[in-house]
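ARCHIVE CARD
Drawer: 12
Card no.: 0347
Subject: one protein chain, sequence and derived structure
Cross-reference: see card 0346
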Amino acid sequence: MSSVASNGRSLAEILADIKDELQEFVQTRIELLKRELQEKLAVIKAVLPIASIGILFLVTSFVLFSFALVGLFAGVFAGDPYRWLWSFLIVGFLWLMIGGIAALIAVRQLTAKKLMPRRTISVLHDDKAWIQQEAKLL
């Protein structure tokens, strides 16, 4: 059996070409994935401030509701009027609403941006179809 193909190239040369093309193929796909992930990271960095604001207001709400509970017990046990309780509840509910709205906006922005590397996946699906088609021709 001859190690030279019908086009005058040896098997070693053909395997070296296949290896080089495969390395280039993988490297191109990795670069595409890196680029797409960097774009997704930029989206996350843009949404991070509003998410931080949402978290800040939710934590503030927790603290204020805790003070309201303290005010409730102080009112029940000490006979004090409930004016502190109602004011803490109103302010706590206000911060809860602001924090909840900010968190909802952040979640919607993240889901709208679709964080999956869709282009890379699409290219890989196309590559798979092409390879299957080429395999059928052999």
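Annotation on reverse: Residues 50-116 form one domain. The mean pLDDT is 80.
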